[in-house]
Design a protein that fits this description.
Helix content: 40-55%
Largest sheet: 4 strands, mixed
Shape: globular
Strand order of the largest sheet: 2-1-3-4
Number of strands: 4
């Protein structure tokens, strides 16, 4: 599974990366965490508000940092 953090590296982007990692670890998933910081690449996902979280190339959330439990539901 590939978790992609879409954001320029702002504090919210870092928080989302930490939260997504915690959720995947709690579920015991085998995953790769990729941080996409290039604005043109982020726009290719259709994300206009960062941070964003994509799972295997599909955007699950943008513009907010969901809780660990919310991310766990997205990953299940």
């Amino acid at each position: 599974m590939k978790l992609q953090i879409l954001g320029t590296g702002c504090p919210k982007c870092k928080k989302l990366a930490d939260t997504a990692q915690a959720a995947a670890d709690e579920l015991g998933l085998d995953y790769e965490l990729e941080k996409i910081t290039d604005i043109n690449e982020i726009m290719k996902f259709g994300v206009m508000l960062t941070p964003g979280l994509a799972v295997d190339g599909t955007v699950k959330v943008s513009g907010k940092v969901p809780s660990v439990d919310e991310i766990k539901q997205m990953l299940s």
